[in-house]
């Protein structure tokens, strides 16, 4: 029945790892097809003469590596490769008029357009030679060190004891950071409802990923410590200010997370995509509490303008050469023209002004979301880019997403952010970066009505 099964005598110790390799090879060779159901733990243990615990461990590692998915009550299935290439929540257009509240982005209007026009005119009138000709990352990065330091200080991060690498946004920074601290087969842990591109990134790098139990402040320190006691954890990927559930990690919780990371010597990858936009920016980043092990990254994309894909990766000096090498082989260097615009804006105060304006505008939209959706249990971060609307179960979530799309409104399903093995928290994430507040209010009323009908089912 299972022609891919090995002769049990060929399984080497540790046998769970050997079994993993057999199944991975069967998937790669086509002997196991996407969607095909694997034998039950007990059935496979009987056929191969292994303990149920050994098979369970192999299956768990395959789930973490992204090769297999487990479904409660149904079993374990080979994961569809096509899922790796799909967007987490593609903008499938249900009609000619679609309001995208799925993708997080700041508000863009005339203020941002005028600021960009001014910057481009200024650069055109006095074009730095390096922007045109430089092919060395250090030449570009070293032009504006004090300016970048000013922005990072607004985020609560000092350069002392660190190197800072300019990147093409946060996605580039998180990839480089992950490649710098871990290798294929290493275990990365993160929030059980976390960053939506992290699973695909870990799969592509051959790393294992596991979600950790969380509450309204994010990861539970005891849950993190329990995993570290039982397995070698390489790094913690964490979003302390703005995860999909609109959780904000408090000062005491941050200190507890750092304590566990130091105790078990794990690296911390801190994703602070919103930077100084967050109203909770007065809370110290984990990078300030554990500079010796924290890889901190932020960008201007979420707090100033989507098209300004410039980020900053601050790393311990001891790891700087490794990080620069990883950045070079994946990105070479930050795009000089974008970097010139970004540093010009920081230098002349435009970035501060745009960020302050964005914070006020988003607070207004957050108040609208709170006003319209508060009866439905919405959670809105102060001056944040998003709101989280919980659902009763996965079925309710799917219906809410589908019916909202039919009404011309795209929202992000909570299952997009679920990172196993823990169950997903049902709900939808709603992006609030809409220029027209009237349009936003009307859309939220539509979502509220659909959600109310869902709850009455």
From TrEMBL:
InterPro entries: Aminotransferase_I/II_large, HTH_trans_reg/aminotransferase, PyrdxlP-dep_Trfase, PyrdxlP-dep_Trfase_major, PyrdxlP-dep_Trfase_small, Tscrpt_reg_HTH_GntR, WH-like_DNA-bd_sf, WH_DNA-bd_sf
Domain named HTH gntR-type: residues: 13-81
UniProt cross-references to Pfam families, sorted A to Z: Aminotran_1_2 (PF00155), GntR (PF00392)
The entry's keywords: DNA-binding, Pyridoxal phosphate, Transcription, Transcription regulation
CDD domains in UniProt: AAT_like, WHTH_GntR
GO terms assigned for molecular function: DNA binding; DNA-binding transcription factor activity; pyridoxal phosphate binding
PANTHER family per UniProt: HTH-TYPE TRANSCRIPTIONAL REGULATORY PROTEIN GABR
Protein name: Putative HTH-type transcriptional regulator YjiR
């Amino acid at each position: 029945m299972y022609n891919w099964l090995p002769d049990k005598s060929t399984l080497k110790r540790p046998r769970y790892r050997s079994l993993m390799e057999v199944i991975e090879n069967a998937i790669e060779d086509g002997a196991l097809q996407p969607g095909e159901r694997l034998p039950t733990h007990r059935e496979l243990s009987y056929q191969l003469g292994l303990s149920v615990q050994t098979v369970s461990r192999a299956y768990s590692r395959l789930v973490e590596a992204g090769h297999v998915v487990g479904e409660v009550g149904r079993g374990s299935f080979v994961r569809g490769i096509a899922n790796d290439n799909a967007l987490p929540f593609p903008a499938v257009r249900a009609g000619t008029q679609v309001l995208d509240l799925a993708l997080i982005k700041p508000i863009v209007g005339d203020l941002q357009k005028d600021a960009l026009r001014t910057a481009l005119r200024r650069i055109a009138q006095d074009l730095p030679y390096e922007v045109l000709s430089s092919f060395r990352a250090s030449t570009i990065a070293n032009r504006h060190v004090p300016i970048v330091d000013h922005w990072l200080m607004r985020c609560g991060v000092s350069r002392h004891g660190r190197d800072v690498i300019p990147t093409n946004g946060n996605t580039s920074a998180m990839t480089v950071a992950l490649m710098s601290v871990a290798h294929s087969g290493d275990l990365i842990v993160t929030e059980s409802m976390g960053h939506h591109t992290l699973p695909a990134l870990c799969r592509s790098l051959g790393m294992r990923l596991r979600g950790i139990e969380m509450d309204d402040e994010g990861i539970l320190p005891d849950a993190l410590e329990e995993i570290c006691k039982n397995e070698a954890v390489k790094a913690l990927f964490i979003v302390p200010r703005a995860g999909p559930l609109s959780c904000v990690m408090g000062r005491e919780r941050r200190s507890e997370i750092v304590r566990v990371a130091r105790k078990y010597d794990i690296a911390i990858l801190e994703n602070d995509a919103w930077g100084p936009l967050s109203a909770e920016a007065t809370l110290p980043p984990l990078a300030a509490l554990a500079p010796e092990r924290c890889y901190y990254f932020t960008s201007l994309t979420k707090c100033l303008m989507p098209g300004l894909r410039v980020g900053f990766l601050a790393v311990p000096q001891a790891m700087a050469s490794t990080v620069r090498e990883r950045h070079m082989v994946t990105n070479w260097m930050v795009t000089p023209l974008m970097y010139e615009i970004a540093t010009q804006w920081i230098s002349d105060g435009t970035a501060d002004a745009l960020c302050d304006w964005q914070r006020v505008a988003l607070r207004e939209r957050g108040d609208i979301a709170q006003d319209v959706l508060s009866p439905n249990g919405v959670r809105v971060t102060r001056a944040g880019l998003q709101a989280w609307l919980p659902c009763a179960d996965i079925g309710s979530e799917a219906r809410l997403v589908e019916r909202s799309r039919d009404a011309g409104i795209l929202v992000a399903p909570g299952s997009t952010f679920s990172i196993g093995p823990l169950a997903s928290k049902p709900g939808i994430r709603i992006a609030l970066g809409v220029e027209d507040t009237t349009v936003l209010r009307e859309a939220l009323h539509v979502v509220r009505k659909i959600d109310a009908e869902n709850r009455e089912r």
